[in-house]
Amino acid sequence: MRINEIVKYSFRFFILQILLTLLTVFYFDNFLIGDYTDGYELIIYNLIEDRDRFYPIIPNSLMKIDIFLALFIFVFLIILYSTKFYTYVNELSFLSNNKSYDEFFSIYLLWTSSLFVFMMIFRFDAVSRFYLILFTFIVPAILVSLRNSETLSSLLGRSPVKENYISFNLDQDSIFKQLRIISLRNSVGNNKININKDHEKVIDIINNQNKRGNINLVVLNLNEEKVVNEKLLNFLINLNKKVLLISKENIEFKRIFIKRTEELSDYVLNYFNNDIQYGAKYILKRGMDIFLSSVGIIITFPFFILIALYIIFIDGKPFLIKQERIGLHGKKFLMYKFRTMQKDAHIKRNDLSNLNQRDDILFKIEDDPRLLKGSAFLRKFSLDEIPQFVNVIKGEMSLVGPRPLFEEDTSKYDVNYMRRLNVLPGITGLLQIKDRNAPSFETWYKYDIEYIDNWSLSFDLKILLKTPLSLFRSNNNKGL
Predict the structure, then answer these.
(1) Which of 117, 424, 432, 445 has a beta carbon 3.0–4.6 Å from 398's, enabling a disulfide?
(2) What's the domain range around 351?
(3) 406 versus 232: which is more confidently predicted?
(4) Does the CA dihedral 454-458-462-464 come out positive or negative?
(5) Which pLDDT tens digit goes with each residue over 229-256?
(6) Residue 48 lies in a domain
(7) Which of residues 148, 173, 201 is at a domain's end?
(8) Which of 174-188, 355-369, 401-415 has the lowest mean pLDDT?
(9) Are residues 323 and 430 in the same domain?
(10) Peptide bond into 318 cis (omega under 30)
(11) Average pLDDT of 324-328?
């Protein structure tokens, strides 16, 4: 087993251990025992009696029902992981071949037999029979739904059924549209084109669609061709998206990269996923974002009230603005900010373009006439961005990532810089801790790409820890 697979399975084991233990303890207390409080004493008495007879070296402090339930879940998961039927979902399998009933039945038998054996051995005989039978169905249903990371990702804001794919030379009635990776997503266009001969056009189509909308998967049917144009292949690898290459022959790649190769219906499928914030990594990042943003909302709530009252006092409502920005994979969302400018500030942006001190994409004016009185202080210390904790909770932003820009700014990105759309935009980022007032878009580009190429959760934590110091080092308004 490869290291990345070990990490995935270990992570899923850890999540399932916590989830199933909490669920089992809750269900035990509220349903299996319920109002029959004497049942606790009976079970504890049985546990202590067995301890005295068979394993007296175990201290009394460990003779607790919750500990035994947690150990049972641990042993059950080890048994479950040793089976062949509880493995990760194969994205390259046909959806119709995914027999959830068969999987549920196998898990049900394993779970039920393990649960009843545990109850019998440790004499948990004071529980409700009806609720015990009901519990035998609940856990297998949860395990089937959590077979892969898609369910958790959906709960945290990233569902595959809301993602899109763009395809090339994929017939309307193609059997490959039944592949799980394709069938769960929505098509935003199929293009009939000679992929290698017109590789520049393929790149332009993908790039333009990336600017217009939310695409997460690129599917290319090469038919009889055995090679992929080198420039196109490099573009696809650096795209930071999922890419599926379909061909009748084995493709001869001119460079080494991580991919999966499978044969299906006399075709060869080559699949690589360079979406760096996907699956377990996305779940961990979202978990950290939700927790820290919730803490941030609680800590900054008094400032939120004071700033809102101040803006209303000097310029009336609204104190909060919603700006349409471009997020993960080109998805549009409304970013929240305290209003620090006049109510028609964005409309006046074009009229003041001759005063812009940055390049064509970025926009900033020294002593901007649109600023409200006293708002420069809010912008200097990024207090105007406190409401973006809500965007993070909603899954539209992250605490750390490239700053989200306007749609008109995104339209000016080149092919390479489009990669910044393949990670969650953030409140802070590498740019903010190194050169947060950089006037050059090239500087933005450098730090954003550096962040993408080196992204990890530990890297996010380092940036978060350094952000407060960067605020006090800055002498200028940020002015995003």
Answers:
(1) 424
(2) 280-473
(3) 232
(4) positive
(5) 999 999 999 888 999 999 998 998 988 8
(6) yes
(7) 148
(8) 355-369
(9) yes
(10) yes
(11) 90
